[in-house]
């Protein structure tokens, strides 16, 4: 008998893949967590029926969340990751020698636990000496922080369940307060095919708070539609105006110096969403 997993990305569309076996399933205090081994994408983390990350394509998302803001900021030393309990963004953050401390705030400790067990190549840097892991509410952590971080990355699920508050104007205002005077933040903002209104709303809210607000894109095959967007807000530094001297060599599979700027060149239908 063949076993297939389908993520219903809308009421009329989904993505499906063949499963070798279920590694773990659990209803945590916050969400339904499944870890499965797939034929095509290796081990895969699923939360509330939504694909979060897979061994095969995880590098795209994690590199694009981390390196765009970290190369935009001239000297990122203190970095915060909200969500991201799989550890992939933290792994990429630590590739930057300027980073002295990286704080991970993940509301669901089970995500951390089972990512370490089944996704070790993604979660393997969570025990690094520069990393502080807090199992806590990222929204409240932001609310209680002021002038503390150089870069903040919001690595959340789609705006359902515990992540709903991470897509509000109040949260973005809190991020601005938590950042230093030349701080930069980035958040994943879903896809333009099925959730165009989310992108429009987030861009509007962030623009009211940050003087520099931009949208960039990446191709992630296991995410809805495959075309994914990220919103960056910056107090001072423009991600498309940084000089080539700012870049230094790091090991990546997707992100490059040229791609950094190219990612901000948007298809017209996406550009129309943020005009």
TrEMBL record:
Cell wall biogenesis/degradation recorded as keyword: no
Residues where spermidine binds: 62, 86, 155-158
Reactions catalysed, as given in the entry: S-adenosyl 3-(methylsulfanyl)propylamine + putrescine = S-methyl-5'-thioadenosine + spermidine + H(+)
Gene Ontology molecular function, alphabetical: spermidine synthase activity
EC class: transferase
Metabolic or biological pathway, per its Swiss-Prot or TrEMBL entry: Amine and polyamine biosynthesis; spermidine biosynthesis; spermidine from putrescine: step 1/1
Keywords: Polyamine biosynthesis, Spermidine biosynthesis, Transferase
Record EC number: 2.5.1.16
InterPro entries, per database record: PABS, PABS_CS, SAM-dependent_MTases_sf, Spermi_synthase, Spermidine_synt_N, Spermidine_synt_N_sf
Domain PABS: residue ranges: 2-235
Binding residues for S-methyl-5'-thioadenosine: 31, 106, 137-138, 162
Record: active site: 155 (proton acceptor)
Entry function: Catalyzes the irreversible transfer of a propylamine group from the amino donor S-adenosylmethioninamine (decarboxy-AdoMet) to putrescine (1,4-diaminobutane) to yield spermidine.
Protein name: Polyamine aminopropyltransferase
């Amino acid at each position: 008998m063949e076993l297939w997993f389908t993520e219903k990305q809308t009421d009329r569309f989904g993505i499906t893949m063949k499963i070798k076996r279920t590694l773990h399933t659990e209803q945590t205090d916050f969400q339904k967590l499944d870890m499965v081994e797939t034929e095509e994408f290796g081990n895969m983390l699923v939360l509330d029926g939504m694909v979060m990350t897979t061994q095969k394509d995880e590098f795209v998302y994690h590199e694009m969340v981390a390196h765009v803001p970290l190369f935009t900021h001239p000297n990122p030393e203190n970095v915060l990751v909200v969500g991201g309990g799989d550890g992939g963004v933290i792994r990429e953050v630590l590739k930057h020698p300027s980073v002295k401390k990286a704080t991970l705030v993940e509301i669901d400790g089970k995500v951390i636990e089972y990512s370490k067990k089944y996704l070790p190549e993604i979660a393997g840097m969570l025990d690094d000496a520069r990393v502080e892991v807090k199992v806590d509410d990222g929204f409240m952590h932001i609310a209680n922080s002021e002038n503390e971080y150089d870069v903040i990355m919001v690595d959340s699920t789609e705006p359902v369940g515990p992540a709903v508050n991470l897509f509000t104007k109040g949260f973005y205002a809190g991020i601005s307060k938590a950042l230093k005077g030349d701080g930069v933040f980035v958040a994943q903002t879903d896809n333009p095919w099925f959730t165009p209104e989310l992108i429009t709303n987030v861009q509007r809210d962030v623009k009211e708070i940050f003087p520099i607000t931009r949208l960039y894109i990446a191709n992630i095959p296991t995410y809805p539609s495959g075309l994914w967007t990220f919103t960056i807000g910056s107090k001072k530094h423009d991600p498309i105006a940084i000089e080539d001297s700012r870049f230094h060599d790091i090991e990546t599979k997707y992100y490059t110096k040229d791609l950094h700027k190219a990612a901000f060149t948007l298809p017209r239908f996406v550009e129309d969403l943020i005009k």
